Structures are given as structure tokens and as C-alpha cells.
Amino acid sequence: MKLTNIFSRRNRILLRELVITDFKLRYQGSALGYAWSLLKPLFMFAILYVVFGMLIKLGSVEHYAVYLLIGIVLWTFFSEATNQGMNAIVGRGDLLRKISFPKYIIVLSTTISALINLALNLVIVAVLMIINGVELHFSMLMLPVYILEIYILALGLAFYLSAVNVKYRDTSHIWEIIMQAAFYATPIIYPLAIVLDKSETIAKFMLMNPLAQAIQDVRYSLITPETITVATLFKNDLFVIIPIAIVITVFISGTLYFKHHSKYFAENI
Amino acid sequence: MSDTINNAPIAVSVSGVSKSFKLPHEQASGIKQLLVNSLKGKKGYEIQHVIGGIDFEIKKGEFFGIVGKNGSGKSTLLKLIAGIYVPEKGHIKIDGSLTPFIELGVGFNPELTGRENVFLNGALLGFDRKEIDEMYEGIVAFAELEKFMDQKLKNYSSGMQVRLAFSIAIRAKSDILLIDEVLAVGDAAFQAKCFDYFYELKKSDTTVIFVSHDQGSLERFCDRGVLIDEGKVIAYGKIRDVLKRYGSVVLEGLDRNDPNRDKVVAQNGIVEYAEIFDVRVENSQGKKTTKYIYGESINVSYKIRVKRTIINPVFGVTIWQKNVEKAILATNTLIDRYTETGTFQKGDIINFSVNLPNNLNGAEYVVEPAIANESTTIFYDQKPNAAKFIINGGDNPHSIISFNERSKYFINKAG
User: Fold this and answer.
1) Domain-located, residue B55
2) Residue A132 lies in a domain
3) Is residue B49 part of a domain?
4) Is residue A14 a part of any domain in this protein?
5) Residue, of B237 and A41, whose pLDDT is higher
6) A1 lies in a domain?
7) Cβ contact (<8 Å) for A25 and B30?
8) Which position among A19, B270, B339, B357 has the lowest Cβ density within 10 Å, counted as fewest Cβ atoms?
9) pLDDT exceeding 90 applies to what percent of chain B?
10) Does residue B2 surpass a pLDDT of 50?
11) Is residue B57 part of a domain?
12) Residue B350's domain is classified under what CATH number?
């Protein structure tokens, strides 16, 4: 996998077609079609907002509705990218067995589909921000950086998971459980402040999770400076290096693992 | 063509290539099985050696056949060349661009329309949207599917799918093409299109690697080939020799009662249907002799012992000038429109004779009689160098033979 080949003309064409196909097929035959990619996170948001915003109050945060929605949208993106990436290779077995082409394109195409979905969902977030009267800051320009961080983490995991999944189909079940746990281990539905009230160490530890760090940073720069981030909790910007190092490590090791095993996908699927 | 190929540079070189697969015993692709097996000290899989040390070379511009029975490893070999599998030992060197297609319609999605599938399939061949747009009309017209392009592929008949796939596949522009068993699908009209395409390829500079067990098309298109059996090279070289060897390999694996056996046996000249014997060359007085003078009438006769019912067989004679590769005269009953030669039963002896109008110049000639089925696709028997004769005289030592009159045949059942 020479770097110059990664985006050769042929591979770009293929990547583009696979993304288009993926998108076309996703809501094939459903009456609402693409609308589902907006409706699903909206409904999840509505349910969680009723439960945690109205019935069980989990602390008080400025603009809680937007605060919650952006968390759900980012989580949905991460979950989609890793899940679809994980099943990408196994799902395209027919293609792999009959044609030789760089396998990473398949994984890349599914994560790009998730990225397109995220873009659509962010439109809803923007609308809700306007309704809620969230003030605009220059710090909002940092949003793409944090999204890139989550994307790289998701892509690295997708590479790793898709390769393992070829060998052991248990992977998808294990990942489902891990994601379930990660959903609660990440401050998505509850503000981190309620953890901080119990234990500062646990809150610090939780923020070393790159997903938690990125989501908190997005909330900080987008919605409210009340948000607890790595910088505010540790009183030192440099600690952000740890979650970023985790992201880079996962990405590099995932890519290498994938590269090593991709030669044998065709015969092992 | 064959002379230029001999000196042509190498397009694909396969040297010492081996490949084996791990075949899991049962549902071993799970963690539970992994644990159980490691506790019991079992491997959980069996090693199957599919390709064991193969060497051959394919020259540029060549139409190269890979021949073998089912399960002989020929498709694995093709996948190794295509880069789908990685060789375990040895290496494969490829010079030139290679279309990675192995089968027709790879990547076709039943949920997409015909049109959308053209773009997806085209992308797998390396064409972008603009390029496909330009070829689109042509692709659709060739597939004869103008009315169906906006329908989902799942509503196509299998024949329609194949036509569409083929129509896209032939657009592939690369130095080396890999074709696996395309002819197994499709009706007569489709096969005719395939043949036209193959003839085009044969004329072009494209190197074609063709996997098939259809001996007819292999012989028709391929220059050379390789015979694979149990993962090893059994024969390699001129396609005719490779196919001859293939016949005996298939025969070994067939049961005595297998209905295919007769065909294989007959195809390879192993005497079963009919046997030629008592080949004679006689002069106009009916005297058996080998010496003739220029212009003297020559009668070639032979007898056939029938071993199985044959209907309207074709009888023929080929005359070779001694030590010359090319036949001087090849004539048979089909060429001369004697189509109703009769039905013969087991035990019949057929007398066949043909009176050759003799325009041969002075030289030594050999006679090769043959008997084939109605359409000459199966040779029941042929006897190279069965008889010889010498012509003395003749005014032109460089002459090309031409006959102004048709040969006369006499066929009847003995007794």
C-alpha cells in the first residue's frame, strides 16, 4: 500500500462509486428514504430528552437540548462508522473473491457514508442551536478538527474490526457490548459535572477517552464554556496529548493490522 | 502469428508457485471453537494443497489456455495471476496492465437499476462517470437492453444480466485479460457474440488468459496452453498437444459407465465408435501400388469397423507431402456435400473409397484417413501416415494443387 497508490485515479473512481452505491442502497425501498438518516437521531434525541431532560434531571447545563443532541449526533456517527466499517469486508465478500483491488477502499467508503450522514445531522444541530438562541463564537471553527479526530479514531477501529471480523464472526457481538458500555462511559446523556461531584479522578480518567474528550471539546466550543473539558479539568492544555496519542496509536496499529491481513481476505472470507 | 509469438517478450511469468488453503473442519470461525480446539490440542482445520510448484510463461499477444478438470486448481491459478490470492511460495511477474475481472457481472447489485450497475461495474474496470457516459449508448445497444435500463437488476432474466455484464466487460482496455468460463452461460446468440469478441482479441495485441473446459473453443482460440491436474503442470505448450493430454487425464477419472466417457474417448481418437483399417492406395486398375506417374488416377480406400451406432458420419482423406507440415489436400464427404452417408450399426464393416483427381507433382505423399461425426466435432478415428505413394514426373515442381472436378465417393456396406 504505497502512499501514492492510495488515491490513484482508479481507486478514487472506485471509492466514489462505492460511496454512491452505499448511499443509494441504505434506504432502498423505504417510503421516507434519506429522511430516515435525519429522523433516527431526532427520535433518539426526543426520547432521551424526555427521559433525561424532563423526567430525571441529570444536573443543569445551559442549552441542555443542544448539548444532548450534539452528543447523540457525534455518538451516532462514531457508532455507524465503526459498525459499518466492521461489516464492510465480510459484506463485500463476493467482490473480494473475484476481483483484485485495494481492500481498504471498502472500509473507507463505508466510513465516508457515515461522514455524509453526520453532515446532514449537523444541519439539524444548527437549526436547534438557532432555536435555542446559542451565541456564535469563533471557537466554533474548531468543530472540523474534533470531527476529524473522531473520524480517524473510528477509521482506525474500523480497519482493525473489519479484519478481525473476517476471522471471527463473534467480533460484531463483542463490539455491540463494548459500544453499549462505551455509550454510558462517555458523557453523552449526562453532564460530566455529576461525575465530577462524586470523584475528580474518575472524571479525569473518563476524559482520557478520546471520544469523551472530543465530544466535550465540541460542546465547549459550540454551545457553552460551562462544559468540562480536558483543558478546564486538568488546568493544563497539554493533557489533551493523551487522548490524541490514543487516537494516533489506534489508527496506525489498526491500519497496519489491516494491511497485514488484507492479503488473505479473499481466501478466508 | 505463432512465429511472432515465439520471440515475443513475456507478459506473465509464473515460477515455482504454490498455494494451499486451510479448510476449517466445522464452524470453526468462532471464538468458542477456537477455545475448544486449543484445549483439545486440535488444529481445527486441514491443509489442502491446491497448487504445488507451478512454472510457465505467457508471451505478449498470446491467447493462452488454462485447462483442467473441475477442482484441478485452474481457477485458483487464475486468481493467483489476478492478484486475488497471494502465492505461498514462488512468484508471479506481470508485465503490463491487467484487468482484474475473473467473472462476468462481478459487483452487480440486484437492488440497483441496470443503468446504475453499468456505472458501478465500469468503476471496477477503472472508468469514471464521464467515460462511462460516453460509452453508455454503445453498451446498452450491444446488450440489446434499451427498454430495461431503468429497471432494477433483480427483475432481469439471467440472460439479460449476462448480456449487460459482457457488454461492459468487453470495454476493458488493458494489456492482459483474464477470462474464466464465460461461455458456460448464455444462449447460442450470446456465444456467437463471445466468439466474435474473441476473434477480435486474437487479432489484437492483447494477451488473453482463458480458462475453460470447452475443448472446442480452447482449440479454436488458443495458441498455447497449460494443463493443470491436482495442482501440477501436466502438459505445457501447443494447445493441440495440451488438449490431447487433457483427454487422457479426464478419461482416467471417469467411470466406465459415465455417459461422458464415450465423448471423451472419441474426442481423443481412442478407438471406440469406429476403427479404420486396411488403408489402400490403388491405381485405376484396382492394383495396390505406391508408384504413380503424374496425372494417373489415384484411388484411396479404407474399411471401417463400426463399434457403436453412428449416423451420417463424415469420411475424409488428408494427403500430406512427406516432411511438409501443411496438408496438400484435405477432402471429406461433408465438404463435397455428401451429407446422407447412412446409418451404421455395431458390427458393420464399411467400405469407403475415394477417387482423387490427381494433379500432384512429383514427390512422396502420405495418406491420413479419418472418420468423424456428422458435424465433424468428434473424430471417431484417424490414422496418420496410414499409407504412402510416390508420384513421378509432373511438369511444375513448385505447383500449387488445384482440382477442377469434385472427388467421387463410393460407400456401401460390405456383404
Assistant:
1) no
2) yes
3) no
4) yes
5) B237
6) no
7) no
8) B339
9) 26
10) no
11) no
12) 2.70.50.60
pTM of the shown model: 0.74
Q: State the pLDDT at residue B284.
A: 81
Does the pLDDT of residue A72 top 80, yes or no? Answer: yes
Cβ distance A100 to B100 less than 8 Å, yes or no, reads: yes
pLDDT digits 0-9 by tens, B250-300 = 766 655 555 555 565 555 544 467 889 999 999 888 888 888 887 788 899
The CA–CA distances, whole Å, from A249 to A29, A142, A207, B382 equal 40, 22, 17, 72
Q: Give the minimum alpha-carbon distance from A11 to chain B in angstroms, rounded to a whole number.
A: 8
Our count of domains for chain A comes to 1
Confidence band (pLDDT; 50, 70, 90) for A182?
very high
Q: Compute the count of residue pairs across chains A and B with CB atoms less than 8 Å apart.
A: 71
Q: Which residues pair with B408 in a beta bridge?
A: B355
The β-bridge relationship of strands B176-180 and B207-211 is parallel
Contact B128/A267, CB-based, under 8 Å?
no
Structural domain harbouring B222: 114-266
> What is the number of domains present in chain B?
2
Instruction: Inform me whether the pLDDT recorded for A3 exceeds 60.
Output: no
Cell numbers standing for residue B386: 496410414
**CB A25 to CB B112 under 8 A?**
yes
The CATH number of the domain where B255 resides is what?
Answer: 3.40.50.300
Element housing B171 (H / E)? none
Whether residues B136 and B258 fall in one domain: yes
Q: What is the pLDDT of residues B157-188, one digit of tens each?
A: 888 888 898 889 888 888 999 888 765 566 66
Closest-CA distance, B240 to chain A, in angstroms, reads 29
Cβ-Cβ contacts under 8 Å, A98 against chain B: 84, 101-103, 106
* B233 and B283 both lie in a single domain: no
- Do the domain assignments include residue A223? yes
B246/chain A closest Cα distance in angstroms: 26
B302 shares a domain with B193: no
Please indicate whether, in this complex, the C-beta atoms of A98 and B103 are within 8 angstroms of each other: yes
DSSP states of B233-297:
EEEEEEHHHHHHHHHHHHHHTS-TT-THHHHHHHHTT-SSSEEEEEEEEE-TTS-B-SEEETT--
Q: Give burial (CB, 10 Å; 0-12/13-18/19+) of A224.
A: middle
